[in-house]
Specification:
Blueprint (H helix, E strand, L loop, with lengths): L6 H6 L2 H18 L5 H10 L11 H4 L4 E2 L1 H6 L11 H10 L4 H9 L3 H12 L1 E6 L10 E5 H19 L7 E4 L7 H13 L2 E2 L10 H11 L3 E4 L1 H14 L7 E6 L6 H13 L4 E8 L9 E2 L7 E3 L5 E10 L5 E2 L1 E4 L6 E7 L8 E13 L12 E7 L4
Helix pairs in contact: 2-6, 9-10, 11-12, 12-13
Amino acid sequence: MRQLFSIQELRSLNPVQIERMQNAKFHAVAKNLLPHTKFYSTLFKECGVDPAKLKKVEDWHKQGLPLIKKFYYMKHVKDFIVKPEDPFKTHLSYLRDLSTGAAVDLALKVMDKQELTKTLHDFYHPKMPLFSGGTQSGKRTPTLITTTQLRNLNNIMGISAQLMSQDYFKDTVGMNLFPYGPHLAWHAVQSAFNQGVDLNLATAAGGAMRTKDLIEMADKFKANVFAGMAKYMANRFLPMAVKKKIKLRQNILFINGSEPMLPKDKDKILNLSKKLGVKNPLILDFYGASEMKEDIFIECLPGSGYHHIAPLSTIVKTVKINHIKKGDFIDDWEFTSPEKGGAAVMWNINGAGTVLHGYLIGDKYEKIIKGRCPNCRLNTERVYGVSRLKLK
């Protein structure tokens, strides 16, 4: 059962092969895991849908299933957690839909009882919550991630570290400027730095460390990779660094996350960094959402588009919403072609914990491009023009 692709596979596989594997995982989750959530079990019964007939993500629309608004999920978080009565039976069926029955039976037979118990626990039991930023609602909402998915996050961030460094410089010293907490950004950056920089200062902004202390560390250790929110770097961290007259190295990488970077913040980062002695600043974006769990989208160069480096974790599509009515769901909708963009909808396809299918992320995309990136050569989807979706 594949959890993720290596960077070599992301370059050698084509979009058709990737989509085929995505749909196989979508079918296995829809058939075997969704019925063990309170929400989807009820939804399938009310809509008269046999989940075993959901063979590919396009069947979500074909079967007349709705899209779920974020506000509904916020009110019913527990209803989206996978809770099988018989984890072994559920897992066996799930694995058989992803592989041959004989291979699965053989793999399970060689496990002793303790190993099997741990495998099921890691796959189904939530390990920790990841909280969304609450930028739209003002309320942080948890998504539960499992031990298996946390391991995947570590491997996926290793890929992102390879792409974002691009041999830009040597002797890298990383500073994590995200607030410490149970949200995706801090943990993702920490994992990437553990694998991708020579020295990880293991810092955190917000209440964990004062900005002036972070600046002193940046000066003392000559940090040259900074990851955090562009607003914080442009309006707090760098202005104070200029005021304190510290000096940074000539080549600096700034990585933005949490929300799309505004042009004015990017300009501030470029201009302020030059006052600190930086001659070659490079600013890259990464994009994700706590609801996507271990999945992440990253740039390899400014403006390259967000590369979907974990397509076996989440399927992301764009849709057109034909009619918006009051309530928790969107019934009148249709898929759009990737190049036309639209409202972003996701389907978790990599394991248990919280599982969201047909979920409106709360963003819209200008377009999704399939095909090989001319710079890094990854042959996977790239998302462009991310902005907030407003449902009237």
